[in-house]
From TrEMBL:
Gene3D superfamilies: Medium-chain alcohol dehydrogenases, catalytic domain, NAD(P)-binding Rossmann-like Domain. Residues 23-140 form the Alcohol dehydrogenase-like N-terminal domain. This is Zinc-binding dehydrogenase. Keywords: Oxidoreductase. It holds the Pfam family ADH_N. It comes from Halomarina halobia. One of its GO terms (molecular function) is oxidoreductase activity, acting on the CH-OH group of donors, NAD or NADP as acceptor.
Length: 356
């Protein structure tokens, strides 16, 4: 399914390339509909290069590939894998230092690799996807469902924010503000890391998301639009606030709440992008010696995420509450955007081949 311009997703056929010399072909089992896909469709993100086959959270089976490429990845034809969204150049300063999510080429499957760059099949919203030899590919066990496996990089984000940035260790109190797929993935990683209490916060409109948060390991959930939410959260954390707060919600109010509930000398990991400048109480950050960290997408975190996924596959699968056929991708998107078709019960949707 090609996003040819904002608001227009169409079915286009491309030839499956010959991969005898390099690269591989993935037969798609599942591709989830990321919030980025929604903003590309709406035209509110300037990240994308159109026209593009959408889909960067993908799992599938390798059906063909060059021996050298497959050897380097340590997989073979018939193996199930999940590729990372980032396609590094492995050559720029950032890539060489392991920060390939900041690669100067900025290549992302399903987002910045347009169809006019051959072989066009750069996204997961399709039957087959081309995997460039420089892809980062992770093997997936047979017992992990496609709808869990395609979230490998989302769990990777959780690993980055909870473990690498937040340095959460057993017994730490953790709050996650924003219960979308990224916040829920962070919840699963925080539970694995031994966070207790583990509080997930969201708007009343996010009721379904908070239910999933509770099912995947939150000890408490709170509505951010109810009175005294900060006091109640601090009480749950034992009176002085949380050791670590991760903000995935793209709202200034969420940042303010996080600063209110993080404990003195705590860590605040800001992930949500506001799209504009925010005014924050900087003196509180100075006075309480709060460590404020920015967090982008995973880089080098999916290896650990695969272990989290293996141990928590059922919980990870719960994030993808709704399943649509790939050919129905536009319906899946409309059901998540404001308008007549909006369905508040959808936490995250996954696309699968064939008919549902
Ligand atoms: Zn994404
Ligand atoms: Zn690079």
């Amino acid at each position: 399914m090609v996003l040819s311009e904002p608001g227009r997703l169409e079915q286009v056929a491309f030839p499956v390339p010959d991969v005898a010399d390099e690269g591989a072909i993935l037969e798609v089992e599942a591709a989830s509909v990321c919030g980025t896909d929604l903003s590309l469709y709406k035209g509110t993100s300037n990240m994308g290069v159109l026209p593009v086959v959408l889909g960067h959270e993908v799992a599938g089976t390798i059906v063909d590939g060059a021996a050298e490429t497959l050897d380097r990845w340590g997989v073979g034809v018939g193996d199930r894998v999940s590729p990372e969204p980032y396609l590094p150049c492995n050559d720029c300063g950032d890539c060489l230092q392991g920060h390939y999510h900041m690669c100067s080429e900025g290549r992302l499957y399903g987002i910045t690799l347009p169809t006019h760059v051959k072989p066009s099949l750069w996204g997961g919203y399709g039957e087959y996807m081309y995997l460039h030899p420089k892809s980062r590919v992770h093997a997936v066990s047979d017992d992990i469902s496609p709808k869990a496996a395609c979230l490998s990089s989302v769990i990777g984000n959780g690993v980055r924010w909870i473990s690498r940035k937040g340095k959460v260790s057993p017994g730490d109190s953790v709050a996650i503000v924003g219960p979308g797929a990224q916040g829920l993935a962070s919840t699963i990683v925080a539970k694995e890391a031994g966070a207790d209490p583990l509080v997930v916060m969201g708007l009343s409109a996010d009721e379904k998301n908070l239910e999933v948060g509770e099912a995947v390991g939150a000890t408490h959930t709170l509505y951010t639009d109810e009175d005294d939410v900060a006091e109640r959260a601090i009480d749950i954390a034992g009176g002085s606030g949380f050791d670590v707060v991760v903000v995935t919600a793209p709202a200034e109010a969420a940042v303010h709440l996080a600063i209110d509930v993080v404990r003195p000398r705590g860590r605040l990991v800001q992930v949500g992008l506001l799209g504009s400048d925010a005014s924050i109480p900087l003196d509180n950050i100075v006075g309480d010696e709060i460590t404020l960290l920015g967090g982008r997408g995973q880089a080098g975190d999916v290896e650990k995420a695969m272990n989290v996924l293996e141990r928590n596959a059922d919980d990870v699968a719960r994030i993808n509450t709704h399943t649509f056929a790939i050919a129905e991708a536009e319906t899946a998107i409309h059901r998540q955007l404001p308008g007549e078709q909006f369905d508040p019960d959808i936490v995250h949707a996954v696309l699968v081949p064939g008919e549902i």
